[in-house]
From TrEMBL:
SMART domains associated with the record: AAA
Protein name (database record): Fe-S cluster assembly ATPase SufC
Annotated organism of origin: Noviluteimonas gilva
Domain ABC transporter as annotated: residue spans: 2-246
Family membership noted in the UniProt record: Belongs to the ABC transporter superfamily. Ycf16 family.
UniProt keyword annotation of ATP-binding present: yes
Length: 252
């Protein structure tokens, strides 16, 4: 589904990703862990198509299509979803309205009919039920005055409505108390499906107590330096990230 091959990315003149390769199959959950500054958010932003990232070398395909040549909107329509570490507030723009516009833009780009407000409301009700959410978030401005936990819940709700093929969560767990963390994890688990993959980026192992990844990768200094099963996350928890410093892939 997602294939990243020898990706080199420069940010503000500095090499940040230095030959990163990754293969994600439909239905899988891959966790990306690594120290601060390793390039985790850079990877997420490059996949979503944000500005300011210089692709120096390498290729990324998504469903067999060249992802890097696509505009962010095309990527979203193709099914790539990025939940931000710090979700933006859009005061005065109704959350439901915002989400319907986003969904319809994607449907239009795919050549699918847009949903009218009744159809959208039906979809929203279904998703709220799946996630065991109340509708209180729907009528407020986008993330306006939301608590940390509410913002994360809203991201999961966005994910549920947009039904992406690949969901990238960049430190969705940062700053959450244990109840909010469980909420997020329950949401992700409810949305796991054989045709949807997750890239769960996290600095801490605790989220992975609740979201069981199929594969855990350690990203350090711009490369994947170690991959393994869920037990790798526990080893990291015990030994810390300094432990991977000794295991860095040799200079090419
Ligand atoms: P992580 O998410 O793993 O903590 P990032 O991908 O955010 O790491 O950052 C990797 C490195 O790239 C850091 O050294 C960071 O300072 C640098 N960096 C990221 N974005 C920018 C930017 N817009 N301008 C300059 N440097 C950046
Ligand atoms: Mg960081
Ligand atoms: Mg980051």
């Amino acid at each position: 589904m997602l294939k990243i091959d020898n990706l080199h990315v420069r940010v503000a003149g500095r090499d940040i990703l230095k030959g990163l390769s990754l293969d994600v199959a439909p239905g899988q959950v891959h966790a990306i862990m690594g120290p601060n500054g390793a390039g985790k958010s850079t990877l997420a932003n490059v996949l979503a198509g944000r500005d300011g990232y210089d692709i120096v070398e390498g290729a990324v395909t998504f469903g067999g299509q060249d992802l890097l040549s696509q505009e962010p909107e095309e990527r979203a329509a193709a099914g790539v979803f990025l939940a931000f570490q710090y979700p933006v507030e859009i005061p005065g723009v109704n959350n439901t309205y915002f989400l319907r516009s986003a969904l319809n833009a994607q449907r239009k780009a795919r050549g699918e009919p847009e949903l009218d407000s009744m159809q959208f409301l039906k979809l929203v009700r279904e998703k709220l039920a799946v996630l065991h959410l109340k509708d209180e978030l729907l009528h407020r401005g986008v993330n306006e005055g939301f608590s940390g936990g509410e913002k994360k819940r809203n991201e999961i709700f966005q994910l549920a409505v947009l039904e992406p093929k690949l969901a990238i969560l960049d430190e969705t767990d940062s700053g959450l108390d244990i109840d909010a963390l469980r909420n997020v994890a329950d949401g992700v688990n409810a949305l796991r499906s054989p045709d949807r993959a997750f890239l769960v980026i996290t600095h801490y192992q605790r989220l992975l107590d609740y979201i069981k990844p199929d594969v855990v990768h350690v990203l350090a200094d711009g490369r994947i330096v170690e991959s393994g099963g869920p037990e790798l996350a526990l080893e990291l928890e015990q030994h810390g990230y300094s432990w991977v410093a000794d295991r860095k892939a040799p200079e090419a």
